[in-house]
């Protein structure tokens, strides 16, 4: 069943970004080893921003402040992703951390602009990484 997923392009500094935090999935087996934006599915009754705050607490143990929406190509500004899901992506900055791979990930890595393609992203994330690079590191 297609779901709305929310995810974060976590930047070291929203005002003057130099690095993006990528997370390597540890589960399920079919996705393990691929890199992604931390986040997850919006649960019934949740609003998307609240869902992302919850996911980042659970997965990375961080608090965040929001930057801006990285608009996708769908009319509702979502990105088409894995298995027919759609995903809303925001830039965010960590306000309390440090980030740790507490749940769903086994490694985190800060990537500079010229390193963004150095990890194997989930296939659907590649155009999103490019959009973040254009919008943020331009
Ligand atoms: N979190 C996240 N999911 C992504 C990205 N790109 C992408 O195709 N996906 C897909 C993988 C999954 O099929 C789906 C998100 O599922 P998830 O497993 O992260 O969601 P969740 O934490 O709420 O877990 P669950 O309730 O399904 O157990 O979206 C991405 O950058 N981040």
Percent of sequence in beta strands: 25-35%
Shape label: globular
For the record, the CATH class is Alpha Beta
Which parts are unreliable, with pLDDT below 50 for 5 consecutive residues or more? none
Helix content: 10-25%
Gyration radius from CA atoms, angstroms:
14 Å
> Class by helix and strand content?
alpha+beta
Q: Tell me what the CATH architecture is.
A: Alpha-Beta Complex
Associated small molecules: 8-OXO-2'-deoxyguanosine-5'-triphosphate
* SS summary, helix count: 2
The domain count comes to: 1
Let me know the CATH homologous superfamily.
Answer: Nucleoside Triphosphate Pyrophosphohydrolase
CATH topology title: Nucleoside Triphosphate Pyrophosphohydrolase
Keywords: DNA damage, DNA repair, DNA replication, Hydrolase, Magnesium, Metal-binding, Mutator protein
Protein name: 8-oxo-dGTP diphosphatase
GO molecular function, one term: 8-oxo-7,8-dihydroguanosine triphosphate pyrophosphatase activity
EC number: 3.6.1.55
Summarize the structure.
The chain has 138 residues and is an alpha+beta fold. The chain has helices at 48-60, 126-136, and strands at 4-11, 19-25, 35-36, 39-41, 63-69, 79-80, 86-96, 105-112.
């Amino acid at each position: 069943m297609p779901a709305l997923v929310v995810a974060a392009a976590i930047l070291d500094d929203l005002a003057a970004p130099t690095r993006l935090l990528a997370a390597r999935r540890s589960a399920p087996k079919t996705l393990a080893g691929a890199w992604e934006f931390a986040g997850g599915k919006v649960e019934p009754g949740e609003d998307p921003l609240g869902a992302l705050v919850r996911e980042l607490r659970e997965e990375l143990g961080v608090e965040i402040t929001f930057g801006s929406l990285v608009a996708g190509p769908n009319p509702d500004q979502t990105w088409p992703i894995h298995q027919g899901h759609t995903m809303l992506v925001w830039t965010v900055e960590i306000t309390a951390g440090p980030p740790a791979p507490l749940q769903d990930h086994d490694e985190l890595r800060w990537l500079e602009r010229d390193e963004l393609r150095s990890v194997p992203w989930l296939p659907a994330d590649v155009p999103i990484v490019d959009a973040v690079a254009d919008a943020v590191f331009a």
